[in-house]
Amino acid sequence: MTTDPQPAPTQGEAPSAQPVLENTPQVPPQQAASPQQAAPPQQAAPPQQAAPPQQVAPPPEPAAPSAAAPHPLPQHRIKRTRTGGIWVAVGFFAVILLLLLIFILQNNTDVSVSYLGMHGHLPLGVALLLAAVCGVLLVVLAGTARIGQLRATARRHRKVDAKRAAAAAKEPANR
């Protein structure tokens, strides 16, 4: 069994059996309740080198074993990242593709398809999937046109605002 190396305790500090976590308040270990379990006293620091007030904590009060529960560790929240978002999106689309594949394989009855003078036979699942993809492409086309309109309007507003700012800058100089 191997253990991770722990930093050596500083003078006046008791060695800890628990790993030290960053950004976690350190709580001193509880002292033994019975004299048989008490650890030997440590050598006190010289009087000229007093410990900072942050390291000195009052001894914990003994509590009944059934009455007190251990304090939970503080919860650390991990910020969401773009990479994490991409990972979730990839997983979501993998599930969607799996469902589409199952749909296509279960609907493999041949159907006759006619479009703009073209005729052919396709499995029902493929024909429905092709119709859905064509519908999505139509929505994307309409959305692209609307985004183009909004960008043109924003460009016009930026030009008008720039002209107003230039006029306002010239006006105090003329006075």
Main attributes of the structure:
mainly alpha; 2 strands; 43% helix; 175 residues; two-stranded antiparallel sheet
Structural account:
This protein has helices spanning 82-106, 124-174; strands at residues 110-115, 118-123. A two-stranded antiparallel sheet has the order 1-2. Helices cover 43% and strands 7% of the residues. The mean pLDDT is 75. By secondary structure, the protein is mainly α. It has a domain at 83-174.
**Proportion of beta-strand residues:** 5-15%
The biggest sheet amounts to: 2 strands, antiparallel
Q: What spatial order of strands do you see in the largest sheet?
A: 1-2
How many H/I helical runs? 2
Gross geometry: flat
Based on secondary structure, the structural category is: mainly alpha
- Helical proportion? 40-55%
Computed over alpha carbons, the radius of gyration is 36 Å
Distance between the termini: 84 Å
Number of strands: 2
Mean pLDDT: 75
> What sequence of helices (H) and strands (E) makes up the elements?
HEEH
Poorly predicted regions:
none
